[in-house]
Description:
Chain A is mainly alpha-helical and 324 residues long. Chain A is built from 16 helices and no strands. Chain A has helices at 2-32, 37-41, 48-57, 64-76, 90-125, 130-144, 147-161, 179-183, 186-203, 205-219, 222-229, 234-245, 247-263, 265-270, 276-286, 289-317. In chain A, helix 7 runs antiparallel to helix 9, helix 10 crosses helix 12 and helix 13 packs antiparallel against helix 16. Chain A is globular and about 85 Å long. By secondary structure, chain B is α+β, with helices and mostly antiparallel strands. In chain B, a hairpin with a 3-residue loop joins strand 15 (427-433) and strand 16. The two termini of chain B are 24 Å apart. Chains A and B meet through helix 2, helix 3, helix 7 and helix 15 of A and helix 5, strand 17 and helix 16 of B.
Amino acid sequence: xxxxxxxxxxxxxxxxxxxxxxxxxxxxxxxxxxxxxxxxxxxxxxxxxxxxxxxxxxxxxxxxxxxxxxxxxxxxxxxxxxxxxxxxxxxxxxxxxxxxxxxxxxxxxxxxxxxxxxxxxxxxxxxxxxxxxxxxxxxxxxxxxxxxxxxxxxxxxxxxxxxxxxxxxxxxxxxxxxxxxxxxxxxxxxxxxxxxxxxxxxxxxxxxxxxxxxxxxxxxxxxxxxxxxxxxxxxxxxxxxxxxxxxxxxxxxxxxxxxxxxxxxxxxxxxxxxxxxxxxxxxxxxxxxxxxxxxxxxxxxxxxxxxxxxxxxxxxxxxxxxxx
Amino acid sequence: xxxxxxxxxxxxxxxxxxxxxxxxxxxxxxxxxxxxxxxxxxxxxxxxxxxxxxxxxxxxxxxxxxxxxxxxxxxxxxxxxxxxxxxxxxxxxxxxxxxxxxxxxxxxxxxxxxxxxxxxxxxxxxxxxxxxxxxxxxxxxxxxxxxxxxxxxxxxxxxxxxxxxxxxxxxxxxxxxxxxxxxxxxxxxxxxxxxxxxxxxxxxxxxxxxxxxxxxxxxxxxxxxxxxxxxxxxxxxxxxxxxxxxxxxxxxxxxxxxxxxxxxxxxxxxxxxxxxxxxxxxxxxxxxxxxxxxxxxxxxxxxxxxxxxxxxxxxxxxxxxxxxxxxxxxxxxxxxxxxxxxxxxxxxxxxxxxxxxxxxxxxxxxxxxxxxxxxxxxxxxxxxxxxxxxxxxxxxxxxxxxxxxxxxxxxxxxxxxxxxxxxxxxxxxxxxxxxxxxxxxxxxxxxxxxxxxxxxxxxxxxxxxxxxxxxxxxxxxxxxxxxxxxxxxxxxxxxxxxxxxxxxxxxxxxxxxxxxxxxxxxxxxxxxxxxxxxxxxxxxxxxxxxxxxxxxxxxxxxxxxxxxxxxxxxxxxxxxxxxxxxxxxxxxxxxxxxxxxxxxxxxxxxxxxxxxxxxxxxxxxxxxxxx
Lengths: 324, 627
């Protein structure tokens, strides 16, 4: 156990170092970013004095090192300041946007993992069969298809032409507002269907291909022969094999979630989903530094944390891994 | 040391050397003194008329206080040597304006036949704004006009884009006759006399060939759900669906049982504090808070929250509040609310409402029972109706009275959190889901009660998304403040049977201002020739797909504007042969590589033109040549 603690400690130090690097790089990038937010914010009638006053209010007139120290401190305390343009604390904005993004990706993630695991396991078990060939071919095709293109096409066909599904947003105009009211309403699920399916079509390919490969390795294991010798039915044997093949998937899910969190930006724009990705793009357009920095930081933090969790989980769920 | 950019092998040009010297810090060091010397023997950058000194010398971060500006300007104020080529013409274009780039590709290719070389740089919109505001955009500043309430008044463009003492005059034009007319019209409170001054100012602007209008437009093309709505109002310059001119939402009739109109817009619904809002939310804010005056579909000023106003003298007006108005919480609107609002804006506001009230000196309730307020301005005021009355709204005193202290926002009203604005306008603030939707509920007790029951504003990030929603009847209108359709987009929208496309007369333009304060633009003959190199029909007919007008004259106040001068000299037409003739007659020659070469230093006529800058008959007050 001491070894495990030491391992966690080392990983935590490394995580802190990476977070610091991310923060510093982000700060540098925003310093290098062309354009002055006051140029967008101010009315052309404003006097130079008024513009300078606004810069002071935003802390842009301070020396760079002062801005840097303030920025690092605030970010570590999750105090993202106030949005230049939305006149609201960025932490509130982030909380709302992260919630909305989760409302899009979590259901898609669950469906992708459950369905992908089942399909991948069967495909791996039936190696060389038509099912495997079709599964691999389709998975590779879906994996390669750019989701923004698929999204626009799906929107055009199912919403604009056929009118079967709503063209975007989380709920209809005047629809349910609170979190529970929303997720328990049919309206939300109908709105989620199209972006959700597109996300699933992309994300399911990972578990499918991974499970298939993993199953191929497990398939030749001795314990399966023992199970067969015991007279277990094929279905039960596949389930046993799948459990053993799941190991690499656990870490993959953690990484996949982090990537999914960042990768849905275009879908949020196409489907007018008010999530963190859309917010980030808008903030970058407006040079709303606090919002853009916070959005990037939250995205980075989610990815790093999930990677960290994956590293720990691997050791927990696989008894063969030791930390001595 | 040899120059390596011209290929001539002759020693480095003196002007280039001066530029380099200025860039290496000498200029920066001397900039703080309010004067810049390229070397000890060179005279400082100075202006012809001391009245412009303050602008160039005292504004922190700009002009002589900006080393970069000095670096770029110094060589262009230095007399060219014999055989010196006309420098490359720099233009910056924001990346969100691909139509400008298309047009400039053609124009630069045409100008190459005159021996001119363009350098076109693309940059992000934010960077572009910053660049032009710092006057570091090179030779031509390109700008579009999108009509907003504050731009109905002619001074918005006449002053900001051409007045010699305004830093938004990006070409640094300082024509003393023009500036005098502008100062007079600003102080002229008689509308008839002001119109005459404005028209005269347009004449000077057009004759001096400072700006060039590339195109009038683009046309206001909009598509809406005509199966559901009838009787839309086409407001000149704004169209049918703009929240800035919300006549349609007041007067249109439902053709079905649905009385809820859905309007899509790309802008995010960022804040509900009207004092902090950008144009889009401010326009919605003016549907919630009554303004004092409004404009009709022909841009004629009409009473709104103020029933009438009476000019007492050139600095004073009596404003009579419309009787019987109530705020959405049921409290009556009184003249005290109006006084409170104007006092509040003067005391706290630093944004657009401050701009609207910066000339206001005092307010006084003259007749509380009749609702009459006397507004007195610091100086004779010409923009009372079309600016002051247009922009100001009525805030409820009972809500705003202590709000600054209660919310602890110091002296910055932009930080106020106003979750549910309460005004007296034709629409009440309903449900708001940030960045997604906003409900405006019709106030049927309003003096201009809307025929619809409610307006839903839907935020959709892309134009494609908006068009798709219009096709599937998810929305009825596309808000047109920042977005109009191209003819091909309109054609696509029209494929849906329920969609009708309307074109409304516009007063917009795309223009360029040359950096007239430096070479080669200081030479009137060069300007005249260059104007002939611009194929405006290409922009209008090809790039804009025919959705625009080929400009007839160089004015900000184009045909359709109530302030337009119909008797302006016509624009020099596209004629490259004529342009070459003008240049040749003015003493310009061409190098062996085809590049245009300045007239020789001995050309007295050239020196006289460059010194004078303006057309004969006008006088120049701006930057002087060095030496």
